[in-house]
Amino acid sequence: MPQYQPHQRFTEADRDKIAGRLRDAFADGRLDQPEFSSRLDQLYTVQTYGELEPLVRDLPAVRTYETPKAVQDSKPAPEPGNFPERKKDNHPHRGGAIGGFTGVVLINVVIWFVIGLGNGGHWPHFWPVWLLIPWAIIALGGLGRRR
Questions:
Q1: What are phi and psi of 48, to 5 degrees?
Q2: Which residue, 62, 91, 92, 134, has fewest beta-carbon neighbours within 10 Å?
Q3: How many other CB atoms sit within 10 Å of the CB of residue 19?
Q4: 13: exposed, middle or buried (C-beta count within 10 Å: 0-12, 13-18, 19+)?
Q5: Residue 35, Cα to own-chain centre: how many angstroms?
Q6: What would you measure as the largest C-alpha separation in the chain, in angstroms?
Q7: pLDDT value of position 73
Q8: pTM > 0.70
Q9: Could you give the CA distance from residue 6 to residue 15 in angstroms, rounded to a whole number?
Q10: pLDDT for res 1
Q11: Which element (helix H / strand E) includes 118?
Q12: pLDDT of the chain along its 147 residues, tens only?
């Protein structure tokens, strides 16, 4: 990385980086509103690196992104062409379409029941049957495919 001289002019990208540092410092509570406004105003009037430095001299250095320790891999990746052994799931679980569709059917049966209670026990035609028929076909069809 080249060493910048105080008399050199900086780029708009440099100005944007400094503005970002000032915004972060304000958001963190390191600068109050008047100090933040003053430094931001100065930022858009200066032109050299030497004039930029006093605006951020008392702010902490910019931290670069670091992967949190909790998610870093503890063992190295396998060599190319070597595939890790997959653990077999001995407990098949029901899921997918049948699980979500079951919830839809149950909600409709509850709605039908509440409507019947609201009508003083005069139950309407059991219209959730139109959902129960495809649900039963899907459920029975999935029984044969279990592993």
A1: -120, 165
A2: 91
A3: 15
A4: exposed
A5: 33
A6: 89
A7: 59
A8: no
A9: 15
A10: 47
A11: helix 96-118
A12: 467 788 889 889 989 989 989 998 899 899 999 999 999 999 999 999 899 889 998 988 776 556 566 656 566 677 788 877 777 766 555 555 556 777 888 888 899 899 888 888 887 888 888 888 887 887 777 776 655
d(CA 132, CA 138): 10
> Measured in whole angstroms, how far is the alpha carbon of residue 47 from the centre of its chain?
39
Looking at this protein, which amino acid is placed at residue 5? Answer: Q
Query: Is 5 in contact with 53 (CB distance < 8 Å)?
Result: no
**Phi, psi values for residue 9, rounded to 5°:** -80, 150
Q: Which two three-digit tokens encode residue 120? A: 């003083």
Q: How far apart are CA 40 and CA 124, in angstroms?
A: 69
Print the SS3 string covering 66-91: CCCHHHCCCCCCCCCCCCCCCCCCCC
Rounded distance between C-alpha atoms, residue 76 and residue 4, angstroms: 39
Residue with tokens 């930022």: 43
What are the structure tokens assigned to 64, written together?
A: 């670069």
